[in-house]
Structures are given as structure tokens and as C-alpha cells.
Amino acid sequence: MPDRSLPPYVLDRLEIEDLLIRYCTAIDEHDWELMDTVFLPDALWDSTSVGGTAGAYRETRSVQAEQLDGLVMFHQLSNIAVSIEGERATAKS
Q1: Pairing status of strand 81-85 against strand 88-92
Q2: Would you tell me how many other CB atoms lie within 10 Å of the CB of residue 13?
């Protein structure tokens, strides 16, 4: 748990990095309950660039689970770039 006495920018960045790690862990372990903690209720999912589906995350969740079933996955994160401007943040890794 991050030290809450850190500056808000640092806390925001740590939370974003934790989110990226949680996403990778959920995908790699096929842990869809953990994946549910990554997305907001109105999130959209688009994996069409890799032959997947697109739509509301909750509606496509079972399709994603089926498509990934049996696959061994191993994600690594590096070069995490976070930009925070006011209430908006973007991240790329």
C-alpha cells in the first residue's frame, strides 16, 4: 500500500501502475473476477486488432474468457509512461 503522505501525482502514478499490473495478472491467470476490478462498469473492450471482439466489457467478458481458455500467457511490463493532467491520465507501456 502506498504511503498516503506522498504527493498526489506520485500516488496517482502508483495506482495506475498497480492497475496495469492487475490487468496483466488477470489476463495471464485467466482470473475474470480480478479483471472485473480493472474496468469501470461502462468500459468498452476492443480486442479486434488481435482477432477478438468489441463491445461493452461486461457483455464481452464471457467471449474473452472462451477465447483465452487454454492459452498460456505471460505479460511483462516495462517502460511505463504515465501522463497526468488534472483529472485525466493516460498510460502506455
Answers
A1: antiparallel
A2: 19
pLDDT tens figures, 9-61: 899 999 999 999 999 999 999 999 999 999 998 999 998 898 888 999 988 88
Nearest Cα residue to 20 out of 71, 75, 85? 75
For residues 69, 28, 10, 86, the Cα torsion angle rounded to the nearest 10 degrees is -20
- If you search the block for the grid coordinates 511505463, which residue do you land on? 80
Strand partners for 84: 89
Rounded to an integer, the average pLDDT of 64-79 is 87
pLDDT at residue number 47: 86
C-alpha torsion sign, points 46, 52, 57, 59: positive
Residue 24: strand, helix, or coil: helix
Instruction: Look up residue 53 and give its three cell numbers.
Output: 471482439
Query: What pTM was estimated for this model as a whole?
Result: 0.81
